[in-house]
Amino acid sequence: MSIKHSLLVMLEQQQRYGFELREEFERSTGSTWPLNIGQVYTTLDRLERDGLVSDLGTDERGHRYYSITEAGRMEVATWFSTPVAPSTPPRNELAIKLALALGIPRVDVAAVIQTQRLSTIQTMQGYVRSRREADKANKAEDFSWRLVLESLIYSAEAELKWLDHCEAKMLTMAKPPTSGTASAQAAPARTLELS
After folding, report:
1. 81, 13 in Cβ contact below 8 A?
2. Overall pTM > 0.70
3. Do residues 8 and 74 make contact, with C-beta atoms less than 8 angstroms apart?
4. Stronger pLDDT, 185 or 48, i.e. the higher one
């Protein structure tokens, strides 16, 4: 997630100070990814160092305002026109957990999958409820939040499909080959220890 580009996009809309930027970011994303105010100011310092924003000084209430520079606008345009690189996927703790569990005989992999499935379903139900409430309120300013919710729902659905796939694959691998087939005669039955 690019905090740098998120701040630049919000500054392209209007001049803002750090707390405003944090509030706008969390409003747009429904606080899905809470943003630390210290992270906002650290990022603003780097953006200023790189010539992408300008420090406009402090107003009478102590708010330090920033504006985007022309170089910052070009950075935003480049960001929007460049696809997010899929070549370096983030570590998926669930995939790592299942991959490691398969190699440990004492771990009940089917139970691990079922526990995860129930958790994912509950999480997805929470997202669906939130979307339903947002749809019911039908506020134009919540549109971006609804898109984030839908992204989370689709991700949860994909995870559930992947868990179904893992479970089906395990069942297939756990079955011994049918006697009399070429594979049964050529090699010993492949089994998968699940407990």
Report:
1. no
2. no
3. no
4. 48
